[in-house]
């Protein structure tokens, strides 16, 4: 399927009731109720705070694919794209009929409903579910493991979001989408099922390069068996980590959502139409590894005493009145020649003051700054 066809499908089937970054059970339950006559929907467990965890199954094919999102509650972009995908399937588009004929998908849209509601990476017991794959101390972890054991997937899609700090290599290109075929041993050996995952990632990368050239990265593959992806990979199930990252001026992650959707369609179409052997895995190694070369804002060449330094500002994501606000916070004041800003402001040797007329300091939170008597907003668009 050509990328222009996928873009057209996205525009037609985007779930407009889901938007920006705050996505919870309250947002998806009306949609699930609408779906229940068209697919298999069940409550597969409960969170620490007894919120339901939903699972849904669609398709009739022999190739089984398990997808779960919001294991970290504050990583919602992949969830939005899942509902765009489901809308596409339920519209019975001929373009994607082959996927449901060849594959059966089991989808957990929000694995950590408590974390989603609180907009945190951790669950209500302050545990990172992605470090609980072995001990299985949390109810959410047990739910996922049970589905893995009963559904017996041939592929796993581990769906996440990543911070704005990541670059595609040591470049001024953000890692808008990142992937990983997780390691399954300490040696990070290129095993047969890793090759299968790598082959699928290579296909997605090729499609994305036509939209976001040089903005795709791969995550560090250091092995940690406590991570879910590494655990499932170690059980010889090809597992793919998806990381939804930053696109220019897209702090609501709506453009990234489209790119994740394109990745879903591209990969599922490939799996449904091919016998994925892993023979074509080497294209994976053309993708640069993520680095951390970005700050949200850099104010360049500000005078501090007798020095000319840069001010690096990072947004703090805060849940305020059921909306995510991005609060600018001074992260560092130093020469930042090795870093890039998603937004850059040139101070031209002038001092930079906050709204109270004081020089900026590390950890200051400011919605605007004053440079040469000019008031400049630091808020995201």
UniProtKB/TrEMBL annotation:
<dbReference type="GO" id="GO:0004181">
    <property type="term" value="F:metallocarboxypeptidase activity"/>
</dbReference>
<keyword id="KW-0645">Protease</keyword>
<dbReference type="GO" id="GO:0005615">
    <property type="term" value="C:extracellular space"/>
</dbReference>
<keyword id="KW-0378">Hydrolase</keyword>
<feature type="domain" description="Peptidase M14">
    <location>
        <begin position="18"/>
        <end position="271"/>
    </location>
</feature>
<keyword id="KW-0121">Carboxypeptidase</keyword>
<comment type="similarity">
    <text>Belongs to the peptidase M14 family.</text>
</comment>
<keyword id="KW-0482">Metalloprotease</keyword>
<dbReference type="Pfam" id="PF00246">
    <property type="entry name" value="Peptidase_M14"/>
</dbReference>
<feature type="active site" description="Proton donor/acceptor">
    <location>
        <position position="243"/>
    </location>
</feature>
<dbReference type="GO" id="GO:0006508">
    <property type="term" value="P:proteolysis"/>
</dbReference>
<keyword id="KW-0862">Zinc</keyword>
<dbReference type="GO" id="GO:0008270">
    <property type="term" value="F:zinc ion binding"/>
</dbReference>
<dbReference type="InterPro" id="IPR000834">
    <property type="entry name" value="Peptidase_M14"/>
</dbReference>
<protein>
    <submittedName>
        <fullName>Zinc carboxypeptidase</fullName>
    </submittedName>
</protein>
